[in-house]
Amino acid sequence: MAPPAPNAPPALGAKPVKGVFSTDTEQFVGRRMLGRVHQRVFVYAEEQDDGQVAIWRLSRNFIPTGSRRLISKERLLADYLPEPSIYINKVVPLMRRLDESVAAADRHRERQELFAAEFEYKNVLRLDADHVKATFGLGLTYLERQEKDNADIVFRKIMRIEAAFTPEHKHLFNDFGIQMRKLAMYDEAMRYYGRAYRLCRTDEHLLYNMARTQYEKGRLKSARMMLTKALRLNPGFPEGKAFMAFLESRLRGEQVSEPPPQEPVH
User: Fold this and answer.
1) Residue 68: which H helix or E strand, with range?
2) Whole-angstrom Cα distance, residue 28 to residue 35?
3) Residues in contact with 18: Cβ distance below 8 Å, sequence separation at least 6, in sequence order
4) CA torsion, ordered 147, 153, 159, 164, to nearest 10 deg
5) Residues 6+ positions from 48 with CB-CB distance below 8 Å
6) Residues 247, 249, 254: CA angle, nearest 5 degrees
7) Helices 220-233 and 204-216: crossing angle, nearest 10°?
8) Could you write out the DSSP letters of every residue in 248-262?
9) Which residues contact 119 (CB under 8 A, 6 or more apart)?
10) How far is CA 71 from the centre of its chain?
């Protein structure tokens, strides 16, 4: 999930709600449920554009983790107590630290210092096992080192992280899919792009990359079908038009050079 911005703690009735809240839960213990244990649960809450509030449980490291749950703001304010000191003193500094570590890892990867990048990404993931940017970064590091087995482990993990497949991470799954395709991990790339497409059916760049993957698997008609969808979304899509012209020539049996090398940028 995206890290919370270090702003003021939430006040009751304020808009938008953002911060840490707590609630007391009661659990039965023992097979015969003879005893009860009271536990305080801390959550990170963030109001959405539609007025609902997304909440994530805080880990022992005070980091939002797991899948989000949507509740009404009225329920949040009725059932949970605000914890501004935990938000300011624990959550915000930790999230800032994770951001800085990911940025350092990204710089290492850009400079092809791939073992240093792996070290930094893993440090982040020790604190936040589902950190989206660190997970993608680690996967890209393995792909750039051509370590397919390790990259496949990360790929399977990404497929389980709900927060990975959101518009804000579109460029990350685009880069990841491109690198998988370049290593001939075509089936993995198609499963990955397919999951992304189910969540975002209006991205012509995603369809373009699916078409490139199908072409490289030798499925020219499937590639043309996906490219047709991309051009319906954006008829002026230059890379899409160039690739479509190439595909049509190939399907007519003409001798043509390799497809346009440029990846779409978005």
Assistant:
1) strand 64-71
2) 6
3) 4, 5, 7, 10, 45, 46, 47
4) -70
5) 54, 70
6) 135
7) 170
8) HHHHTT----PPP-P
9) 105
10) 22
- pLDDT of 215 reads 93
Place of tokens 């440029």: 262
For the chain, residues with pLDDT lower than 70 are 1-15, 26-37, 261-266
Residues in a beta bridge with 22: 42, 81
How far from 139 is each of 40, 153, 172, CA to CA, in Å?
A: 36, 8, 10
On whether the pTM is more than 0.90, the answer is no
Whole-angstrom distance between the N-terminal and C-terminal Cα of the chain? 21
Between CA 68 and CA 122 the distance in angstroms is 23
Report in angstroms the alpha-carbon separations of 120 from 139, 176, 253: 13, 18, 50
Which tokens sit at 179?
A: 């690198």
Question: If residue 152 lies in a helix (H) or strand (E), which one and from where to where?
Answer: helix 148-160
